Structure formats: structure tokens, C-alpha cells
Amino acid sequence: MTRTVYLNGEWIAETEAKVSIFDRGFLFADAIYEVTAVIDGKLIDFPGHAARLRRSLDALGIAMPVEETELLALHKEIAQRNGITEGLIYLQISRGVQDRDFLFPKAMEPTFVMFTQAKRVLDNPKWKTGLSLKTVPEGRWSERQIKTVQLLYSSLRKTEANRNGFDDVLFVENGLITEASSANFHIVTAAGELITRDLSNALLHGITRGSIVDLARQAGITAHERAFTVEEVTSASEAFLTSATSFVTPVVRLDGETIGNGKVGPVSERLLDIYIQDQLSRGVPIAD
Ligand code: PDD
Fold it and tell me: If you measure from the C-alpha of residue 21 to the centroid of ligand 1, how many angstroms do you get, rounded to a whole number?
């Protein structure tokens, strides 16, 4: 099926959507993105994604091309036009088109693209089995709080790990976990306390992470935001990833060693359930 995509104010067939070879997103990875899930016809954690979009654009000095009300209207319209009730909406904004030059002017016309991906995000087999991760050295740039499209290091390491039988990688810097290739990483101690890395430039400030920490605390789970080591992971009783497309996904193995009893743990399962229930009640319906 041909999707209808959004490109700079127009709705067009995906096969007709073209961006210049001089776009700085293409030449310099000078672009930011957001991914928002849709479940049961509702936008998941939309206000958080909209707020982070603005922070990423501000950090790079790219003008926000639309107001937040328009941004919400575009998300609803693209889901409606493509009949998406479960899946995801991808949005990317680059600085725009300019003859190749390391220097760029202050004001440029951004390139704004959106498309949908139909996906059974609520039917994730890894929620039952858990994931197996591999540690790899952190090799990304130092401004990881900005959601840029510079994803090559993550993509290379994840693909390599995947070919060796792992589901994903866990980046380690100075002995401390930063995050996974495209998700935040958390552990649960034997005492049932949640530990997640504190926010800094070392990691993306995941929207799902923020919601999960809030929901955990509301559910009476103590949550500590601090850096933690690889050893703390292998001696934890549970571990899990959070992201917009996988919500809460248990991790049961690190570098071949089991975490806890090697099975999906009760805290991860509970947080996944609480998150989905919360979003089903608070998510923004795509149809008014
Ligand atoms: N990735 N860390 C990284 C490096 C990420 O790429 C992502 C999300 C997250 C989780 O953030 P959030 O909860 O806001 O989705 C953490 C998206 C889903 C992607 O690249 O497809």
C-alpha cells in the first residue's frame, strides 16, 4: 500500500516525496527526529515528544516550523490519512537545503518530513522471552540528549551484535551504562528498587523513561536516578529497556550472563502493564 507522507506542508504519495541531495540532513546528518507510537487510535506520550522536539531544535538552532497545535493536528491527520490505529509516526526536521558548506547561515528553511509505519506494537514477542544484550564501548558523540539522525554507530553495532545472536547492544562509557542503541536501560535491585541513569548529555532523555519513573513512584516503587555499572546489571534481579516503540521490554541476559533468574521479572511486567493502561486512558485520540 502506498502511504501518504507529509513533506514541507504537502500531503503526497510516498513514491512522489523527494528531498534535495543538497539537504543538510543528507550531507551532514544536520537533522533531528521524533518517533511517537499510536495504540488503540491514540497518540502515546505526545506532549513529551512535542516538548523534546522543541528542545532538540533549540539545541541545534533550527527554527520550529510549526506551532504545537499544528504539530498535533499533523500527527492526527497523518494517522487518519494512512488508517493507522496501531504503529508509529516518524517525524524529521533538517536545517534545510544549501550548497555543501560546513558553515551555515542563521536562518534557513527547514525540511519537514513525516511518515507512518503500521506495526503491531502491542504484540511484542520479546515481552514474554526478554532480550539478550551485548555490551559495547560508547562511541557516539557527546551531545546524546539531542535526538539527531546521527545513528550510524548505533546501527552498525546493533546489526553486528544481531548477527552474533544478540538482540541489541548496551553502550558502556568509563565502566558505566549509558543506554541501548535506541532505548533507555534500567535495572531493578534485589530490594525491588528501580535504578535508571540520571539525565545528562550522556544519554537521550527518553519520554517513555520519564513516564515510567513517574508511574513507578506513583505505584510505590522507589526509583533512583544515578549512573550504574555493568556489574550492577549482572547482579540485578531484573532489567528492562524503555522506548516509544517497545514501551517496557525486559532484558534477561547481558554478554551471555543471566540477569536475575533469566526470566521476565514481575516489576518489568507490572510497569509495562501500568504504562499501557495509563496511556490508553490519557493518550490523545487521533479522531476527534
Ligand atoms: N529511539 N535512547 C535512544 C538512543 C533512542 O534512540 C531512544 C528512542 C530512546 C528512548 O526514547 P523514547 O522513550 O523517547 O522513545 C533512548 C526511537 C524509538 C527510535 O530511534 O526509533
Answer: 27
Q: What is the pTM of this model?
A: 0.97
Mutate to test the pocket of ligand 1, among 32, 33, 34, 35 (most ligand atoms within 8 A of CB): 35
Contacts for 275 with CB less than 8 Å, ≥ 6 apart? 208, 211, 212, 215, 247, 248
Tell me: the pLDDT tens digits for 166-186? 999 999 999 999 999 999 999
Position in ligand 1 atom list of the atom nearest CA 48: 14
Set out the domains of the chain in order of their start, with CATH numbers: 4-118 (3.30.470.10), 126-281 (3.20.10.10)
Ligand 1 center–CA 259 separation, angstroms: 23
Task: Give yes or no for a contact between 196 and 271, defined as CB atoms under 8 angstroms apart.
Answer: no
Which atom of ligand 1 is nearest to 90's Cα? Answer: 21
The H-or-E segment that residue 135 falls in is strand 131-137
Q: Number of C-alpha atoms within 13 angstroms, CB side, residue 93?
A: 23
